Each structure stands twice: as structure tokens, then as C-alpha cells.
Amino acid sequence: MQQVCERLESSLSFRRTGFFGWVAVALMHAAMTLSAAAVQSPSDDTVQVTFSVRLEKDLLAAESPALILFLAGNLEELGSWRPDGVRLDRQGDGEYRTTIPLRVGGEVEFKVTAGSWGRVERDGQGRDIANRQVRIDRLPDGKVQRIEVLVEGLASGKPRQSTVTGKLVMHPEVPSRFLKSARRVAVWLPEGYDRSNEAYPVLYLQDGQNLFDAATAAFGVEWQADETAERLIAEKQISAVILVGIWNTADRIDEYTMTSDSQMQRGGSGGDYLRFLVEELKPMIDGTYRTRVDRESTWIGGSSLGGLISLQACLEHPEVFGGCLALSPTLGWDDERLLKELEKESRWPETAGLWFSMGTSEGSSEQNRQSNLERARRLSKVLSGSRSDRGTTTVYLEVEGGKHDEAGWVAPLADGMRWAFPPRFDR
User: Fold this and answer.
1) Does residue 151 carry a pLDDT above 80?
2) Are 307 and 331 in contact (CB under 8 A)?
3) Contact 377, 371 (CB under 8 A)
4) CB 209 within 8 Å of CB 249
């Protein structure tokens, strides 16, 4: 409530000086306070959800009784993927539990950790597992939804070994006037870069920590973008290309969206993020590396919300980006705002290429999976008449069995790169 009042105060057209200015503010506060009971009292949109976590008996016996567990998830209430997002309280019988309010209808993805990604949950054989997914529902008679989790294993906490292939150059802090913090950027250079005078096309990719190295990937699983590019270049399936991975931060949800989503109550800083890409990062990359600076040689891509902001990049800056690879784009964001806008008036740039994909197993329920596919098919239909400047129609790939995770994006990324950067790339 206080934050709402502060935002309203800052939007007033008069100066808050003098008697009448302060009276106006006081009246506004009174009105907001009176309405708060109706608007902000226990919301009809949220329900209490209990997370109950137990350790498999052998794991429980092996771990210290002082072990502390946490939830790390995709919602702000779960820490926005911080490994110590929400602490679980240990009960006398060994159960770990917490109860938090979550929005009805929301899709929750989460994992259990012991406070760091080096100690994230694993299966009984010590292998990484997919994000846990659940839909938040309203139960009859006001019952609390209970999500029960059995943890079979925990990572040892030992540092992961690097899996980088080829030459990866790190820029730890790229400054920005538009973002809250400097940004870490990883640049992958193709074989032979140091021995040639050639200029290369560039693919900018979101979620940079997950692209090249399992040691930095949030869940220990990388996209294998470096291995994929190296293999496709060696096999002459694509032209040599520079890959630029922009690491995300805790502000990922806000930066990867152009508008706020009423369900998530987050988002809307995408315009500033795109300004960072266009006005700060691209000039830095072009000034540091031998790149082909023209728009036809500059592509952007990402997955999930990263795919959504990549679509927006081509829409907002067609003079900069010649094409987009959008893997599993979150088309449902803000009540399908982008999709509905394109259905109402398709404004995809005629000179921009678009390759996008959706897996048939993306979602925590059959209804969610079908909704994701239906949205992707609608986007494909809307853009079916679009043509890129290469004369190639927009491409949509439906991945049978494809899931919404890093492992599920390895093969689609290869398909997208084949289309975006054909051999003897020349436009």
C-alpha cells in the first residue's frame, strides 16, 4: 500500500509544497487507506500453499541434522531463482516445511537446494533433474494446497568442472546507464578467429550463464551452444559466427518483458534492457571484435522470456537486428499481449527473419502444454505470410517431446542456427 501511495505521489502534476499541496496529498492517502481494505485485504487471487519436503531415508541418514534446505523458484515469492530463495523450517520428524501465499493459476517452477547451486537436489543416481513444476489452484472449503517433495539426492557441493569448448572470452562488468547493474557478458569466438582477418556475423543470446558451461549454468545443464556451433561450422552446415551470451540477474523477469503481468506482478523494464543491447553492448562488441556490423548479420535469440524479449528486439529495433531465434517464447505473458497485438495487426518487419520453436511437453499439466502449443501455432499462422529479406518464410518448429529446460533447447538451437547462418553467409 505504501508503495502504491508513493507511486501516486510521484505522479502528481503539482508540486508538494504549500498548504493546499499537502492537503491534497493527505486526502489522497486517506482515500487510498479506505480502499485498501477492499483491495488489499486477503486477496481472492492468492491462496496459501504449503511446501513439504522430505529427504529419502538414506540421504537423511547421511546428512547432518543441522542441514538447512531452501526453495529456489521462478517467482519473486520463491526468490527469483536465488538458490537460498525461501528457507524451509525443519520439523521434529525430519520434514522441511513452509507455507507462503501464491497467486491462483500461476505456474511454479522450483528446486530444493541446501543454500547454493552446488548443493541442488539430484536424483538417486546423482544426476541433475528437471525443474519441478506445479500449478497453483484454489481448493474447496479453503483448504491449503500442499506440495509434497521427496529429495533423493543432493549435489556434493564440489565445484563443477568447466565444459567450455573453444575460446570463450569473459567481460565481467559491461557498464550500463539503463540497467540497475553492470552485466557479465561471454563471447564465444569460432575456430580460426585469431588467425584470420575475416569479419563474422553475431548471434546475441540471453541467459548467458546457461549457454556454454555447466560450471556456471544455473541448474548444472548448459545449452551446449559452443559445442553445437563448433560442430556445425566444422561440418560446413553454417558459416562461422560469433556468439555473445548476456548473463541474466535477479531482474531477469523485469528486463525480459516490455509490460507488467498482472498474474506475476512483475515485468516492464524490457525497453531499458533493449537500449542496453542496442546503444551500449552492440557498439562495445563491434568495437572489440571483428564483426559484420550490418543488421542482416546481427541476430538475437533466447528461450522462454529470453525468447519473448528477442521477438520484441526485432519489433522495436528492426534497423539493428536482422533476425530472431525464439525457443519456447513465453507468449502467454501479460494475457498474451504480444500475440494478440500481432493477431490484430501483424507488424513483424518484412526484412527480419524469424525462427521459433515449441516443445510438445512444455508445461506442468496437459492443459498448460496444449495452451503453449496453441499459442505457438497462432503465432505461426499470423506470420505465415511473412518473408525475410532472404526470401525465406518464417519457420516454426514443433519439437516432439521437447521440454521447457536447457537440455530441451540443445537440438532446437542447432536447427535454428542452420536456418539463420547458412554456409557462405552473405546477404
Assistant:
1) yes
2) no
3) no
4) no
Note the pLDDT of residue 385. 65
pLDDT tens track for 58-100: 898 888 889 999 999 988 899 888 899 999 999 988 999 999 9
- 380 neighbors 416 (Cβ within 8 angstroms): no
Average pLDDT for residues 371-382, to the nearest whole number? 96
List, for residues 263-294, the tens digit of each pLDDT value. Answer: 888 899 999 999 999 999 999 999 999 999 99
Q: Name the CATH superfamily, with its identifier, for domain 46-154.
A: Immunoglobulins (2.60.40.10)
Cell numbers of 410, please?
540443445
Q: What are the CB-based long-range contacts (under 8 Å, 24+) for 257-261? A: 257/305, 257/308, 257/309, 257/333, 257/334, 258/309, 258/312, 258/338, 259/333, 259/334, 259/337, 260/334, 261/333, 261/334, 261/335
Interval 329-343 mean pLDDT: 96
- pTM to 2 decimals? 0.76
- Is the model more confident about 392 or about 371? 371
**CA-CA distance, 422 to 177, in Å (whole number)?**
36
The rounded distance, in Å, linking the Cα atoms of 96 and 117 is 19
C-alpha angle with apex 260: 255 to 264, nearest 5 degrees?
Answer: 95
Query: Cβ(67)–Cβ(95) under 8 Å?
Result: no
Q: At what angle do helices 333-344 and 305-316 cross, to 10 degrees?
A: 30
User: Distance of CA 186 to CAs 213, 235, 244, Å?
Assistant: 10, 24, 6
Domain spanning 167-420 has what CATH number?
3.40.50.1820
Q: Which residues pair with 49 in a beta bridge?
A: 100, 145
